[in-house]
Amino acid sequence: MSIKTVENMVNWIEDHITMNPTLSDMSSYVGYSQFYCSKKFHEYVGITFKQYISKRRLSLAAMEVKNTQHRLLDIALKYGFSSQESFARAFVNTYGYTPGQYRKAITNIELYTKPSIFPLQNN
């Protein structure tokens, strides 16, 4: 699998992040098995497909919390959380603030950004 294919996987996830992307759908898109896509994704990105989805959803939701006045429930549902409570729980566990506290705070949090894919280095 080429680096370009892994970049295509990451880009596909980013394009579908609010549509409940699945490993099955992504692997169909790039034309490889789920197992192989999962293995290569983890190898190049450093975390699993599922972890990536979770981290990116929460980061994108945090940006929306800070930069818009959309209702927290609407943001939670947009990014795949089942309720505002589950969104708040995940937010507090990751960032130490509720979404409402973060919206009002002057502080910045460390968001998980879309990675750049580089070739593996052979040691």
Automatic annotation (TrEMBL):
One of its GO terms (molecular function) is sequence-specific DNA binding. It comes from the Bacteria. Gene3D superfamilies: Homeodomain-like. InterPro entries: Homeodomain-like_sf, HTH_AraC, HTH_AraC-typ_CS, MarA-like, Tscrpt_reg_AraC-type_HTH. Keywords: DNA-binding, Transcription, Transcription regulation. Residues 7-105 form the HTH araC/xylS-type domain. Pfam families: HTH_18. PANTHER family: ARAC-FAMILY TRANSCRIPTIONAL REGULATOR (PTHR47504:SF6), RIGHT ORIGIN-BINDING PROTEIN (PTHR47504). This is Transcriptional regulator, AraC family. It comes from Alkaliphilus oremlandii (strain OhILAs) (Clostridium oremlandii (strain OhILAs)).
